[in-house]
């Protein structure tokens, strides 16, 4: 699963940075390009929850294969887009079904114990981040060739087809499930027993025991089941978790929203240096993902405490950036922010799945992606308003939002700790 995740973001990051240039070369105005980009974001916003819930119903294998193949179709159509209309059409299947990484995370959640989940998720994020670092370099080289954008799009579609083959070849047997259930059963906790039951259900669905009933049943029945599960999430007590995720997402997006422009206005730094600094941060984020294992052991697998401390560090570093008097303070904040944000993203996902209890992991991850999509829609608007007052306005607003998230976590400390005690209970 780490290899497909690497190839996924490697292929996507080859194409995405070149898309604005391509659509403008087709004669589209800035407004039309912005509308198409917004429509893609809106499709992602509404589809992530439904696709995640659908993966709980029909099984990870079939839903993951469907998303990969339909994403490949979208990038293949992008490689044939010689008009603005074809370009817009090519974004539809990708906007609806490009949730391959979310379903892969749900599958990983099914396969590993709760204690090992932050470590495995951190390595998964590190593998995909490496692809995101290398992809733009390769894409920039290919676009220099004749019809470079079209070739890059076809290569991306081919990578998704290769991923489909890799997912099909995964060992979808029940042997590992039996071993995992036995290991988790020895833990002697209700949380691990529920986890083992979810693991067994997920793997059975992947092998056909459940999917044979769910996959071929009436689409209307599947839609009704999806809506019922989403309603269950909406009526649950997870609102504070998703609100913390939204606030922290917007805070981090505000930090990066005017990064290059702010560095130019405040310190006279050229955009090239800002690009190098962001690449440096991405590389450190990969390192942070690899270090999550020792860090979680240091915190005795207490996800809540680790999330609280990483969020507090993130808030402090954004404040340091907003009040920086020299470029060296910006470099210092960027260095440690790469670690705190990577750890925070992994911890919030783990906390969602832990507090969610018996809720389906695919649905929870889908709702979480929708929350992040809301942040991507709201952040540019808030950034534009804050920038009217000062180049430091967006990060300063981000500090305020991060503080609110930290206060919410402190106010709900008892709920997190009570769940955490169950998870950390020794046999």
UniProtKB/TrEMBL annotation:
Single Gene Ontology MF annotation: transmembrane transporter activity
Top-level lineage group: Eukaryota
Keywords, in A-Z order: Membrane, Transmembrane, Transmembrane helix, Transport
InterPro entries hit by this protein: MFS (IPR011701), MFS_dom (IPR020846), MFS_trans_sf (IPR036259), Sugar_transporter_CS (IPR005829), Tet-R_TetA/multi-R_MdtG-like (IPR001958)
PROSITE patterns the UniProt entry points to: MFS, SUGAR_TRANSPORT_1
Main location: membrane
An example Gene Ontology CC term for this record: membrane
Membrane topology: Multi-pass membrane protein
Family membership: Belongs to the major facilitator superfamily.
Protein name in UniProt: MFSD9 protein
